[in-house]
Amino acid sequence: TDDDLFSSAFCEDSEKLVNVHLFALAAKYYSLSNLGVCTPLEDVLEALKGDREGATGIKPDEFMNNKKSHEVQVMSELVDNIANYCGIKQVIDVGSGKGYLSSFLSMQYNLKVYGIDSSNSNTNGAHERNRKLKKHWRVYQSRGRKNLESQSLEKANDRPVESETKCKTINEELFNNANSLQNQDQVIQDLVPSCGFTEMTTPETNTETEADLVAGSQSHETKLSEEVLAILNVLPADAVEDFSSSRYNCGELCEEEKVQRKMTSLKTKARKSSESNLYFPLTSCITAETELNDIITDLEDCMMVGLHTCGDLAANTLRIFTAKPEIKAICSVGCCYHLLSEQFENQEECRDQVWGFPMCQYLKEKGWSCGRNARMSACLALERVAVGQMLPTESLFYRAVLQVIIEEIYGVTKSDRHVGKTFSKSSSFIDYVRRSLKKLELDDSKLPDSCIMDYYEKYKHRMNELEAFNMLKVVLAPCIEVLILLDRLCYLKEQENIAWSGLVKLFDPVKSPRCYAVIALKNQSC
């Protein structure tokens, strides 16, 4: 068998690695891209869209870097399609950070987004950033509307009039790979009719069009000037209403005021519609026990999203999704696997604690544990290394020698403090060590420069060995990530209220190494 073949990569007696090539082949064999369990993004979008055209207009690279632009553009399109498919307009962005995804979902796709982050500085930054983006709101909206109108004109003669909402069924063939994980997971074509998934078409208010219709129908009764229309477009509705009632006598211009009141009403509706699609950054720490109603007072049927949710937050969002009936769908891309809490890592039984790993019953019964070193390896980016973006060997070497120093000189084997990005700020190894010791609150005065350099000279010949070791970790990284992602997917497949769940590769792994999304849609009755 394949397992027997790959096991020969290690010496049976010493258990040391003896065949690097076979080790690499085994790692590739068990990677997510080779297992055939992912659903292609294109197939998911096609199944969700049907004949509906997607929105166009705003490009996120106009206000964010290339990596973030790539992530936001791809994920927001998918989120919009899921939201439309489920007939929902509210989105909860968990771990929203600076609000890149939230802002774009609100501006481009007309969704009402609540961005929740545990950091006050992130929330405040998101508020400020959103305030600046609002200055460009009308420009972006106008551009997107014009693009959509031009598309509509091109297809006006070919598009049939739809008098009722159609129920769309996801193709059985689309999810064959995902369904092969567990036999009890029925094909989506059997599930969708029973759960009643429909695409809800919400009529959009086009302020300019309705205003023209009202003005046209009342043209024989009114003498409204272009100046008044211009004021309507600039002032808020309440200001316009005050202006009209104080300037004119109701008895003299009764019909004119009727028209103005109608147009004021239209402006008010448009303003309320615009406000309903804003982005609201909130500060809160999300756990598996979080009550969303305590954070979001107008919680309604919604979907939950997370773009690179850190550590346990990814697992907790899945638990909240399965527990809260209001949340109809989820799209979660996790990261920072090294920060996951593990139930069986230290063999300490804490009955009340909710762990980040494992989630599914199968791995829980096996008592499975990865360990911090393995989880750290899962964060490495094989695809980037493959295209020549090599590992930072020197900084890794500095960190490794520092570990030896603090253990041998200070007797410290574990600390709650972190060195962080000290290497980039250091001018030499000596400078690096002294900066790091201060961060760790260790007295560096008893450590002369000569002693520090002695450690450097003692281990520098092993730098190539360290690089080789880290390259093996990079090769193994996808296999560890597979275990974590499949654990989350199997957890969803164990739930009875899920219509469909799957893993989808969203991003270019060179641009964004944590590129896999866990996606699920609930039965509508749940």
TrEMBL record:
Residues 67-343 form the Methyltransferase domain. Residues 155-164 have a biased composition (Basic and acidic residues). It comes from the Eukaryota. InterPro entries: Methyltranfer_dom, METTL25, SAM-dependent_MTases_sf. Gene3D superfamilies: Vaccinia Virus protein VP39 (3.40.50.150). Residues 145-164 are annotated as: Disordered. This is MET25 protein. It comes from Dasyornis broadbenti (rufous bristle-bird). The lineage of its organism: Eukaryota, Metazoa, Chordata, Craniata, Vertebrata.
